[in-house]
Amino acid sequence: MSTILGISCCIFFMYALVVYAIQVIIAVLSFRQLRRSTTEVEPVLQPVKYSVIIPMHNESKSIIRTVRSLLYQSWKPAEIIIVDDGSTDESVNLIKSEINKERDNVIKIIQVSRSGKGDALDIGIHASEFAYICLADADIVASPDAIENMFEHMHANDCIAVSSVVFVHKSVSYRNMLNEYLITSQEIEYLRALLWRPGWAFLNALGIIEGRLGLFEREYLLKIGPCSNIPAAIDYYITLCLHKIKGKRQLGIAPKSIVYTDVPVSVRGLFRQRIRWSVGLGLHYWSNRNMLFNKKYGKIGYFELPVRYITSYLPLFELLLLTTFVLSLFFNNFLLNLLKDLFIFHFSFLMAQIYSVICMGTKFTRGSLRRGLIHYLIFSPLYITWEPLKGMLAIIKLIGKKWLIQDKWQPDR
């Protein structure tokens, strides 16, 4: 027992020295980039024609809201291609009614038999007619200037792809304290992305272009090849592929491009979503392991991917720390007390992260938070239980594909 605790202490100390230092540096860079985003960017002279592709399966509750938010962008899309992946609800009929209301040919529907999100994306990409493509989920609401801001960022930074910033949709409501815990924890999780992604983008090592809404040059999506065999975390797969073929060009994030998304409000929906994400990420980690410490891929290979690999499984250590903290309350043992001190240190560092990012969120995202600042400051200490919860799910990453048996893409609600 003492050997296990000693090894745990050594591992956590190594983690604290290396990863915490990198996280602080990236957070400073992110803050710098967010401050810059508040200044005016030289605008693109003319609106650019682009396609929006929305893969969909049984999204009758949200698809019209999504289509309208994209249709009424400050830069209106030339076409919105909705690829219906074998929906069995009223989604298609609702879209057809919306087409009749709009009385134009911007919205197009492609109906296919049930084959998965990757195949639906492939069909939409090949059906598009323009040089720029926005890939969007069917349960989002984009701010009116989201796509214009992404184009401006793409133009100013020579990017082949630009990510949006995601927040929880303000209409998401709760029935009890468990629902509120799940929703607020996911909000804080999305907010924490603000602490890292702009900094990684500054280093040209952005780890993910958001699948909720991302802007791409079509030719690079075609170079990636088909996504039909990708079971989950397709946005992460696309991002890694783009890093392999982008050359000296950039992948960026536009902090002023705000997108609101629905989130699971039940334990069942949350676990189903996170299991799918965990398995998908685990498979992509393994299939792209050749990028680690490979000078061909620059900073993403030397820094972002190693940190992502470690922090992806860090919740396992947080679960251990939380367990030893509880044990130290009942047993007097030197190593247990040392781990308890480590837990307190980690908890303090995590709270500093969360409070910083909440303040950043309120300053830089134009009132995009669902609740008031005081709510998050009071609720955020409970987030310490969120990471160990994800730690249990991280174990699933080690298991592999068998967790995806017949688990085709479903709405997570």
Could you give a quick summary of the protein structure above?
Helices cover 55% and strands 13% of the residues.
Describe this structure in words.
With 413 residues, the protein is of the alpha/beta class. It is 55% helix and 13% strand. The chain has helices at 2-37, 63-71, 91-102, 117-127, 146-157, 177-202, 218-224, 234-245, 267-287, 298-328, 334-364, 373-379, 386-397; strands at residues 51-56, 79-85, 107-112, 132-136, 140-142, 159-168, 213-217, 250-261. The protein has an eight-stranded mixed β-sheet with strand order 3-2-1-4-7-6-8-5, with helices on both faces. The chain is globular, with a radius of gyration of 22 Å. Residues 400-409 have low confidence and may be disordered.
Count of DSSP helices? 13
Task: List the secondary-structure elements in sequence, H or E.
Answer: HEHEHEHEEHEHEHHEHHHHH
Q: Low-confidence segments, ≥5 residues, pLDDT <50?
A: 400-409
What value does the average pLDDT take? 79
The helical percent reads 40-55%
SS-derived structural category: alpha/beta
Which labels suit this protein?
413 residues, alpha/beta, eight-stranded mixed beta sheet, 13 helices, 55% helix
Outline the secondary-structure elements.
Blueprint: H1 2-37, E1 51-56, H2 63-71, E2 79-85, H3 91-102, E3 107-112, H4 117-127, E4 132-136, E5 140-142, H5 146-157, E6 159-168, H6 177-202, E7 213-217, H7 218-224, H8 234-245, E8 250-261, H9 267-287, H10 298-328, H11 334-364, H12 373-379, H13 386-397
